Amino acid sequence: MSNDYQIPENIYSRELCSELYRIAQLFPENQEIKNLLSLIRSPITDESFKIFIDDKNFTISSIKTNNKEIVAIMNDFNFVRGDDDKINSIKKAIGLYEELYDKTQELNYFLRLLQLVKKVKSVFKDRLVDFEEKVITIFSNLDSSYYQFSLVDTSEFLLESDSKNLMTSISLRLLSKYESENNYSAIKWQIKILNKLKHFTNNDMRIQNALYLEKEGDFLTSKKKERTYYPTILALYTEALKGIKGIADQTVLKDRLSEKIKNEQKDFFELLKKMTISTTLESDYTQWLDSLEIIDFQSGLSALLHLPILDEKSLSAWSENNPNSSLGQFFDNYVHITDKGTISGSTDEKQFSVNLARNHCRNVIIDLVIKITDRMIQKDPISKNALANFLIMDKSPFIPEGREVFFLEGLYMGFQNNFMTAGHLLIPQIENCLKNIIEVNGRNTIKLDEPVQHDNTLGSILSLKESGNMLDGICNKDLLSELNSFLIDGNSANFRNKICHGLASPTESYHYGIYVWWITLKMVLLTKDFFEIPKRDSNIS
After folding, report:
1. Residue 339: which pLDDT band, with cuts at 50, 70 and 90?
2. Model confidence, pTM
3. pLDDT confidence of residue 539
4. Which residues touch 513 (CB under 8 Å, ≥6 apart)?
5. pLDDT for the residue numbered 508
6. Which residues is 475 bridged to in the sheet?
7. Which residues of 127-166 are buried (b: 16+ CB within 10 A; e: fewer)?
8. Which residue, among 22, 52, 50, has the nearest Cα to 38 in the 3D structure?
């Protein structure tokens, strides 16, 4: 560097960077100045230094300066690089970092000092007590909980029991103070500090975090305004529930958080109803049902079969024509959260709107199915023998040979208003029937390229992601989309997975069992309307 320009000794941090940048602009061909600027701008860490060490073009050897920060960092750099005089380099670096901290009160200098002292404790054994006392003094005077945590985390190797007890007392007082101020950001770091100081075990820390996340959610809930959505509240309760996953003795807290998550989801859903589509059944279907003249089993069955499968095009068109929710601008995606606080699915706003419409339409159909079957049962109850004769005469190509009894039991349960049992019986049979239809169409459902050749899952069978999937071209597209959404989509009912894993509540099992029963009835009795059945063998076997 030209002797006409000297770097002042007593400028630091941003001011030093600004001066080096000015000099680099004056001497654009001087690569060493550019390298020095890059070094000073970088974090003072081993990892940062190693990046420069690995760069063969990096050199600052000819730059001469008495600036304390530059000299400290260059000696630190030489120590990390492994120069011959490593011990002298680290001594100089530590001494200068201490001077820099005393001069500027910038904590990063003192943190780096501690990192270096930890590497060579034996060299500084006479000063360890001094550094420990300084840590306590700095900790007591810091205003930032984050910086307090950084200091404790870095100085943990120095702290004796008395020092930890003193700092624990300070942290507990601050925890109480921040709670009274509803300063939950600071509380989070104090909990971490108390864990580092061994006041909280790891599980204690997780529980405390959950409790304060809940308190923060409760605080925000108390400030809620009507017709306003607060996404942070749901996120706080969900984070709290996730945080205590696997801790066995926290059932009360888990249940409380689960209930609050459900309430927030419900509030969000109620808000969306006002902004998008009604999800309650406001119509009285009595007059329409009267017009169907359900006088016996056959007329009721006809009414059930005429209820439509949800139309993918209509649902998509509704979504496109419906004005976007004002919430859409704030979120990249929409997540579906289970009762346990886990995320079961993620989608975009358009598909979220389609799912909302599907849910509404399903509820309409479920309501109609119940009303129609009630009238059928009152007018003309069917016996199991009569239903068996009916199914035998129909000879549905949807039902594989040997599986008739399952469908008889499942469908009969529906006509007895026992939809919970019907759903449990019929869901696994639907999966088997779909695989059978795929196979009679000359396609394969088994993973032949794997060492153990398992069947593909229902998720693979109902996949909508790839053209040429197993049911592509042999299953009505609207039915395929609806089965996918209803049975396996984590953003929707996901009913098959809930039933198979025992996650559906009795109420949900009954409610969606109605829909399973009805859609099975459609597939059994109107098979050729929904599936391609090879002409050479109309009876699937």
Report:
1. very low
2. 0.55
3. 47
4. 419, 420, 421, 422, 423, 424
5. 83
6. 531
7. eeeebbebbbebbeebeebebbbbbbebbeebbeeebbee
8. 52
Q: Is the dihedral of CA 229, 232, 236, 239 positive or negative?
A: positive
Structure tokens at 35: 């390298």
How far is Cα 135 from Cα 111, in angstroms, rounded to an integer? 10
Tokens, residue 28:
């654009």
Q: Is 208 exposed, middle or buried (0-12, 13-18, 19+ CB in 10 A)?
A: buried
> For the residues 136-150, what does the mean pLDDT come to?
96
Rounded mean pLDDT, 271-280: 47
Q: Which amino acid is at 17?
A: C
- Split at pLDDT 50, 70, 90, the class of 77 is very high
Q: Which amino acid is at 271?
A: L
Give the whole-angstrom CA distance, residue 526 versus residue 304.
Answer: 12
CA dihedral 186, 191, 193, 194 (to 10 degrees): 140
Which stretches within 380-461 are classed as H helix?
A: 384-394, 404-415, 419-440, 458-461
Residue appearing with tokens 């109620």:
270
pLDDT in tens, 437-487: 988 888 877 754 455 445 667 777 887 765 547 888 888 888 988 888 888
Mapped onto helix, strand or coil, the DSSP state of residue 219 is helix
Which residues on neighbouring strands pair with residue 336, listed in sequence order?
A: 345
Spatial distance between the Cα atoms of 97 and 105, rounded to a whole number of angstroms: 11
Q: Are 492 and 512 in contact (CB under 8 A)?
A: no
- The radius of gyration of the chain's CA atoms, rounded to the nearest angstrom, is 35
Q: Check: CB of residue 474 under 8 Å from CB of residue 441.
A: yes
Question: What is the C-alpha separation between 238 and 254, in angstroms, rounded?
Answer: 10
Report the amino acid identity of residue 355: N
Per-residue pLDDT, 417? 86
Q: Work out the burial of residue 521: count CB atoms within 10 Å of its CB; fewer than 13 is exposed, 13-18 middle, 19 or more buried.
A: buried
The domain limits of the chain are 1-125, 276-537
Contact predicate 534/448, CB 8 Å: no
Q: Is the CB of residue 274 less than 8 Å from the CB of residue 356? A: no
For 508-536, give the secondary structure using H, E and C: HHHHHHHHHHHHHHHHHHCHHHHECCCHH
Q: Are strands 334-337 and 343-347 parallel, antiparallel or unpaired?
A: antiparallel
On whether the CB atoms of residues 253 and 211 are closer than 8 A, the answer is yes
> Rounded to whole angstroms, how far apart are CA atoms 142 and 137?
9
pLDDT of residue 318: 56
Q: Which tokens sit at 12?
A: 């630091």
